Sequence to fold (582 residues):
Amino acid sequence: MSTILEVKGATKRFGGLTALLDISLGVAEGEILGIIGPNGAGKTTLFNLISGAIPPDEGQIVFDGERIERLAPYVIADRGLVRTFQIMKPFGGLTVFENVLVAAFLRRADPVEAAAHANSILEYVGLASFSDRQSKGLTLAGRKRLELARTLATDPKVLLLDEVLAGLTPTEGAEMVALVKAIRDGGVTIVVIEHVMAAIMALSDRIAVIHHGELLAVGLPGEIAKDPKVIEAYLGKEFHAPD
Amino acid sequence: MIRLRQIAAASSRDLLILLGVVAVLALVPLGVSRFTLSVATAALIFALAGIGWNVLSGFAGQFSFGHAAYFGLGAYTVAVTFTKYSISPWLGLLLGGLVAAIFGLLTGWISFRFGLKGAYFALATFALAELLRLTFNNFDYVGAGVGIAIPLSGGDSWGTLQFENTPAIRYFVALGLVALGTLAVIVIKRSRAGSRMLAVREDEDAAASLGINPLRAKLVAIAVSGFITGVAGGYYVMFLMFIDSDLAFGPFISVVILLRPIVGGVGTIWGPVVGAAVLSILGEVTRSLVRDPPSFLQVVEGVNGLDQVMFGLILVLVIIRAPDGVIGLFRRFRKRSSQ
Fold:
């Protein structure tokens, strides 16, 4: 499998605080890469660098063979690298359908084609019956699905999902995991930030651990769970996995 | 598939409403005085200017407090090209729209590029309109403080767009322009460009994360908006047969323009037209009340400016009771009665 997204030596400082230090990380086409780390580790900052919201101080970001670290967010999205936001940003004054329609227009100018595409996406994520609702009236789980639906409607190559499971009930979470896996099986590469350990272990093909802005470990979920450095970062020095 | 049919149905519903509204408004000249007809013509002209405002401020969410800039540029373009170069006002309307659109693109590019939003953008638009007013007031080429009078050609002429003898035609042309403007808005609202304007209004960062260039969406909005309002200003000259810098660029003109869609319903297709109708009728009612009051209101007869005060008070009440405009009020009412 080829590498579709690669972060090379990315560093970001906010004044005296080094949010990310020399992060190098590759994402293979078609995989689900999980990114975990304690609060404030720099996970969302990494997404902000990749999606163009803020430029890195050092390092490169290569997507689909081209450097993107100086491009505007909309250009990056237009190339097929699309993110969701941890703090969701639905278009509150628009209906669920109109929210997804905006995204569907990215690859099609014809209103009827775009509407058809938006419908099929809403069907796919299970929001079809909410089409005409105002998006601000949705439940948390509904808003997370809407964020996902909007990004999907842009026909992305790579999706960056920022905490799509947080705050969901176990049932809703399981549905979301199944949905994300189905999206990957449809040919979309996925990078996902998550707090919920059990969920991300089940979801990801590989996991990267970020701690204090540094990349601590990258590996298969089974390896990561046993890695002493990771356990230390999450649970403190005194704890060790039983042999 | 059901939804697709709904969309087609919604579009054809808007078009049917447009036909119906035009048909009803086309009957107005039959039963009214020459004076009322000229009030109705002015109402249509400002409805058209409001349709333009609504594209930038209602759809794209960039509140303009200076649409007199576009209105006045359209007006002066028609006046200058007609009086100095004998260019037909028909072409003048088109040129006026283009000049206003280009002015919108240039000033919009600067304003949006430097991130002006909300009250700051509104202030910038206000300042630009004032800048134009003062410039034109001192610019000899356009008549400076004296303004420009359109020479009467005498009688009716389609070529020079003058209808001395048949004011009904003057009204019908205004109605045709409003119909075209509304048609444009119906198409834009369902188009990719319109969808992007709404997205940028709701949340610029989210819009950009979906591949939309917010600057470009706003520039499209300001160009379309300027064009429509510029055409309205151009036709206003052929209605008044005169223009000066106050009538073209005065702050009052900006207020008159933005009040129509705000009273009717910001960001709705029919808001500007409904608002123009409501405000014109309200204005005429308060005026005639002061001119010729019923017996129990004899005291108000002929009191100078009282009609304006009443107009203002009623306007405040309407805005308090119907913050989403008349159309929003209608929608809320329909929702409640359907539950």
